[in-house]
Amino acid sequence: MIRRSYRGLFARHNSWVCASCRASFSSSAASTAKSKLPQTPARTRFAPSPTGYLHLGSLRTALFNYLLARRTGGQFLLRIEDTDQKRTIPGAEQRLYEDLQWAGLQWDEGPTVGGPYGPYRQSERTSIYRKHAHELISNDHAYRCFCTPERLDTFARHRSSAGLPPGYDRKCADLSHAESEERAEKGEAYVIRLKVDDYPMFNDLVYGKTGQKRSNSKLDFIDRVYDDPILIKSDGHPTYHLANVVDDHLMKITHVIRGTEWMPSTPMHMALYNAFNWTPPSFGHVPLLVDKNGQKLSKRNADIDLSFFKDKQGVFAASLINFSALLGWSHSQKSDVFSLEELEQMFNLKITRGNTVVAFEKLWFLQKAHAQRFAATGGPQIDEMVNKVSSIVESTSSEDLSTPLLQGRTLHEYVAPLIKADAKSYTNAEEFVARNSSFFTSTLNRAPYETSAEPSLVSALHTAAAALCLVPESHWDVESHRINISSYDGSSAVTSISNTSPAPTTDDPEKARVVADKAFKKELYHYLRWALTGGAPGPGIPETMAILGRAESINRIQQARKLTASNAAEKRRRVPRSTQGEEERDFKWMGSLAPQ
Ligand code: GLU
């Protein structure tokens, strides 16, 4: 109840932040951030409630805590906050473990791995919380409250209808210890409340001095009410606030990084630390994630659990981690592409204030960047990409690919260089197969070759393409094709770049040759891409030829030649006879590759 009212207050008025701090919120990063990186090893924790699965916001919280611990040589703990048993989702805890491990955020202490301050599941620590709550009763920082729900309800209604703010009148705070003990022993239902007169301000690592100084109004003298939060519920179980504070203290947590939605609760937690006479950890609240319209991320706008990214979208753990790290954290590197290991070396508390807009274009940019990194370094990630792409091809292709395409290679051997050559565009396996579908069919459907080049240039393109096919099997590789294409001199073929734009004229013959050759090469790449893949974007031409193999490349170039020849025949009927012989002559030396 109290937790909710604090949240509402924060959302409406942002009043937990002092005015001078609010004024400085417009600055994008904490100015003293560097000095805020702890000089001693930080013990951090991620404390999820198994009432749902890990989503983008909670992954980022876990990541920042993990990185702070790694950067400072400290420890990262996992604690399951399952005090709200009614809302616990069966299987959620197991999924949390799997998702964190998938993301690479292995905890040093916690469930499944143990540690010196366990158990790490709050439902197994009830007696610890009760003991601590009773300690607070004995030193007058807490009291048993026997008020019935009916009384509290009537009281709340009365205040609400009188337009008064909610609160508790501390009816039970004055009961003597003896009476309180006696009523409890007789079995009367009670909760334990913390006696709080002031909620202390605190120094947030991100937002600076934060909290709300309460000043007593005139009304307070006549009708004072209190926030006295409940620590132990009538069923004997602790509230989140008590369990969270007790555990952070007993588990020796030094730094708590959590979402700003918990910021209104922190003064109450500070009050609890004071009541116990414990030193609180340092708190840093990370900003809310919002969509491009400034709306809080929700299930409707993609703050969905990790399996959406991992299983449905095929996002790499490295990309999602990299993406999450950039949500509110700023760095001074030139590139935004980081592996988890790199982040562990460079993380600091330069965390942006104010809402963080989540732009998913960035996720896909990072995904392609990581695909290229995997392609360059090899390793298990690239094997996994090859496996996924191969299994999609196997399950979707109705053709027997072995003869025309694989040519003695296994599907994995065929797919691996394709992924390496087109990693720059890899989003996920499904999209990769669709984008590169021309590599997985022997019946390519080409639209007619579209060019504005004049017919003599087109015939020179055929000649150049055919020349590339003369490379023997033993030299059929990327390097040979690259050298052959770049050393092919197409300058003499170009009298004009297109029917409409004449070749640029210059007095310097060498310059003119270079310009013409460049124009020819551009057209040649365009032609070869059409001939080899039907014009689909994908790997470079030398790579495409190497992957398709000699037989299939020659086959496709021949088919393309036939297609343009029949187009040309169509056009020839409309052009003067005198230009026809030239084209015929060009192809005589090509033997089996010559047009029929
Ligand atoms: N159990 C809380 C949650 O689910 C943890 C809040 C905190 O980190 O203190 O988010």
From TrEMBL:
The keyword Protein biosynthesis applies. The keyword Aminoacyl-tRNA synthetase applies. It is an enzyme of class 6 (ligase). Residues 43-352 form the Glutamyl/glutaminyl-tRNA synthetase class Ib catalytic domain. Residues 522-560 form the Aminoacyl-tRNA synthetase class I anticodon-binding domain. One of its GO terms (biological process) is glutamyl-tRNA aminoacylation. GO terms for molecular function: ATP binding; glutamate-tRNA ligase activity; tRNA binding; zinc ion binding. Its main location: mitochondrion. It holds the Pfam family tRNA-synt_1c. Its EC number is 6.1.1.17. One of its GO terms (cellular component) is mitochondrion. InterPro entries: aa-tRNA-synth_I_cd-bd (IPR045462), aa-tRNA-synth_I_codon-bd_sub2 (IPR020751), aa_tRNA-synth_I_cd-bd_sf (IPR008925), Glu-tRNA-ligase_bac/mito (IPR004527), Glu/Gln-tRNA-synth (IPR000924), Glu/Gln-tRNA-synth_Ib_cat-dom (IPR020058), GluQ/Sye (IPR049940), GluRS_core (IPR033910). Keywords: Aminoacyl-tRNA synthetase, ATP-binding, Ligase, Nucleotide-binding, Protein biosynthesis. It is found in: Mitochondrion. Residues 563-596 are annotated as: Disordered. Belongs to the class-I aminoacyl-tRNA synthetase family. Glutamate--tRNA ligase type 1 subfamily. NCBIfam families: gltX_bact (TIGR00464). This is Glutamate--tRNA ligase, mitochondrial. It comes from Penicilliopsis zonata CBS 506.65.
